Amino acid sequence: MKLIIAVAQDKDSNRLVDALGEENFKTTKLATTGGFLKEGNTTLMIGCEDEYVDEALQIIRDNCSQREQMVAPISPMGGNADSYIPKPVKVEVGGATVFILPIESFFQF
Ligand code: 2BA
């Protein structure tokens, strides 16, 4: 058994949960925050047997889009804020960041 942890964008999360549910994957949805953008994203925990991992990955791929996002940099600490002109920079976010962990034991009480 494996635990798939998938960090997706909020915009994709409902569609992704629905698509996984249609193929009988069980999911837990967590409201999370990205460390870099400090914006909300969604982390899904998906427990499944090893032979279904590829299918789950394909569904994640099909339902998570890459997007460009503008980020306003934070002014430098201790620097002269008067002369600092923040210039938004573009970062590419998503589709999804996925971790796959082996599960030693699984219980439901
Ligand atoms: P955030 O940390 O908010 O990052 C959002 C996007 O900002 C990233 O998209 C990446 O394009 C950019 N970014 C992140 N750190 C950067 C840096 N130091 N310099 C320049 N650009 C940077 P993704 O790579 O698609 O990541 C989307 C979200 O997935 C992340 O949101 C974070 O919540 C999670 N994530 C990504 N890699 C991770 C990792 N190795 N461990 C844990 N969570 C991760």
A few lines on this structure:
Helix content is 22%, strand content 38%. With 109 residues, it is of the alpha+beta class.
Structural class assignment: alpha+beta
Our estimate of the beta-strand percent is: 35-45%
Named at the architecture level, the CATH assignment is 2-Layer Sandwich
Q: How many discrete structural domains?
A: 1
Oligomer: single chain
Distance separating the two termini: 18 Å
**Net shape:** elongated
The largest β sheet comes out as: 4 strands, antiparallel
Bound molecules: ligand 2BA
| Overall residue-averaged pLDDT value | 91
Strand order of the largest sheet: 2-3-1-6
InterPro entries: CdAMP_rec (IPR010375), N-reg_PII-like_a/b (IPR011322), N-reg_PII/ATP_PRibTrfase_C (IPR015867)
Organism: Virgibacillus oceani
Pfam families: CdAMP_rec
Protein name: Transcriptional regulator
Describe this structure in words.
22% of the residues lie in helices and 38% in strands. It has 109 residues and is of the alpha+beta class. It has one domain (2-73, 85-102): Alpha-Beta Plaits (2-Layer Sandwich), CATH 3.30.70.120. The strands form 2 sheets. Strands 2-3-1-6 form a 4-stranded antiparallel beta sheet. The protein has a two-stranded antiparallel sheet with strand order 4-5. Helix 1 (10-22) crosses helix 2 (53-63). It binds ligand 2BA. This is Transcriptional regulator. InterPro entries: CdAMP_rec, N-reg_PII-like_a/b, N-reg_PII/ATP_PRibTrfase_C. It comes from Virgibacillus oceani.
